[in-house]
Design goal:
By secondary structure, the chain is of the alpha+beta class. It contains nine helices and nine strands. Strand 7 and strand 8 form a beta hairpin. The longest helix has 18 residues. It starts with a helix and ends with a helix.
Length: about 230
């Protein structure tokens, strides 16, 4: 198990901001012995998850993209949901997202950004459940109670009582929002995405808190209308 966790931590170190690593830099980043980092990088390369660059550094392999394609192909609702995210980004002129629940982890599977969106595209894949609109929706519909609370900002929910109140509000309203609870000066609005009589994902938009608060009602009604229309056609 420890070996799998270490391999996962190495793969997780690769990102859009840091697409490649050398052995020494990665060892320092993960506080691993250089020999250990080299052994794992070599093993992951042999397994097809990484590839060597001409400069001798390591990058993620396209084999991972192939595996991702196989994963999404197994979800019959995913193609329609991807199209929905594109429509949301275009019509709301914001960052649009789709998040799913993997065990108790909230995973952002899709993000798209309109060129005129007033925030940059976030890079996080795993999101704090108690500080995001997606986490609130997915936990509420899966009837999961958080084990811990993520105090990302001063506005984050940090107590069980606050969480129970918020979950009841989400279930009653049919949507969730996070105003500066995850990222300062940003807001996310999310709604449940239904398929086959169940909630399979959380879908919504992310923008500056200023823009959301100025047009909260119209933004919310537009997002709900787009998602409900897509669900009715699906």
């Amino acid at each position: 198990m420890l070996s799998l966790q270490k391999a996962a931590s190495i793969l997780g170190a690769f990102s859009a901001e840091q697409p490649e690593w050398g052995v020494r830099a990665l060892a320092l980043h993960l506080t691993l012995p250089r020999a250990t980092a080299h052994a794992y990088l070599a093993g992951l390369t042999d397994a097809g998850f990484l590839r060597r660059t001409p400069a001798g550094k390591y990058r993620l392999s396209w084999h991972l993209a192939e595996m991702g394609g196989q994963l999404t192909a197994a979800l019959p609702w995913f193609p329609d949901a991807r199209s929905l995210i594109t429509r949301l980004a275009l019509e709301v002129r914001a960052v649009a997202f789709l998040c799913i629940l993997e065990g108790e982890e909230v995973v952002c599977a899709i993000r798209e950004r309109h060129p005129d969106a007033d925030i940059d595209l976030p890079l996080d894949i795993y999101l704090p459940a108690t500080a995001t609109a997606s986490g609130k929706i997915l936990y509420a519909h899966a009837d999961i109670s958080p084990r811990t609370f993520s105090a990302c900002t001063d506005s984050s929910i940090t107590t069980p009582d606050e969480w129970r109140t918020e979950v009841a509000r989400v279930r009653r309203r049919g949507y969730a929002y996070s105003i500066e609870e995850w990222i300062p000066n940003q807001c996310t609005l999310g709604v449940p995405y239904h398929y086959a009589e169940g909630v399979v994902a959380a879908i919504g938009v992310q923008m500056s808190a200023e823009r959301y608060l100025q047009g909260e009602r119209s933004i919310r009604e537009r997002v709900l209308s787009i998602v409900h229309e897509a669900e009715a056609l699906g």
